[in-house]
Amino acid sequence: MSTNDQALRLADEIARDQAAQEAPDSARARLEALDRSTSRANVQDFLHTMIVKEFAGRIAVVSSFGAEAAVLLHQVAKVDTAIPVIFLDTGMHFPQTLQYKEELTRFLGLTDVRSILPEAGSLAREDSGNTLWQWDTDRCCHIRKVVPLDQALKGFDAWINGRKQMHGGARARLPRLEMNGAVVKVNPLAHWTREDVETAFKVHNLPRHPMVEQDYSSIGCWPCTAPSKGADLRSGRWSNSDKTECGIHMSPSPRVAAGRTA
Ligand code: SF4
């Protein structure tokens, strides 16, 4: 593990601890009970509990429509095709990703996919030429991803995402449930292996992102994505720097830390 990954993992654990401390005791106790009661559930039963029972009408999915997105969205769609799916449209995605988003939406029958744009004023002030990524990727991710997601999640008490421990780095100890301030992050595929993902694609005949066959194993914005190298699936993300995460998973937002209960 690189020094940067160690630092990220430490920062993530600190943020997680901080988020847990900022959550109301009742919400924390409820999450721990939920974690215990679902610890043996398979992914389908786990998602059914989260979507239909625990957070009914108050839960969304966040998807990049990237290389592995189909496996999570397929599992979610089996429970509820009408669940809100949030796609952060940074304006910097590959055209293939936008086409894949349409294809996968149709294939799975998803009825509420929301493309969330960055705030126009922020772009005008800070990145009118779409070049901020060249010298400040953290700020670019902040205005194009972190802030828009924070806005899009207003009104939700939980959100589902597709991170997995096998991605390594700060994700290596990812739990299935975690607090982010007073909001719950649901990570149903946290324990899935690369083989699990491949099997799901084959068994369910899920469409692939067209760039996967060109060795893109993790796909984000075009300026910050390259083909993967070796076993590290995320090695092509921000490959010319130490950055490994966009920021939406690194810390609780001030809004959610302010106190809605889960
Ligand atoms: S991934 Fe790159 S282009 Fe996309 S928001 Fe982050 S820095 Fe900007």
Structural write-up:
This protein is an alpha/beta fold and 262 residues long. The protein has one domain (3-251): Rossmann fold. It has 9 helices and 6 strands, in the order H-H-H-E-H-E-H-E-H-H-E-E-E-H-H. It has helices at residues 3-22, 25-37, 43-54, 69-79, 95-108, 120-126, 137-152, 194-203, 254-257, and strands spanning 59-62, 85-88, 113-116, 158-160, 177-180, 183-186. Strands 3-2-1-4-6-5 form a 6-stranded mixed sheet. Strand 2, helix 5 and strand 3 (113-116) form a beta-alpha-beta unit. Helix 3 (43-54) crosses helix 4 (69-79). The longest helix has 20 residues, at 3-22. The two termini are 34 Å apart. It binds iron/sulfur cluster. Residues 90, 92, 133, 137, 140-141, 144-145, 220-221, 223-224, 246 line the site of iron/sulfur cluster (SF4).
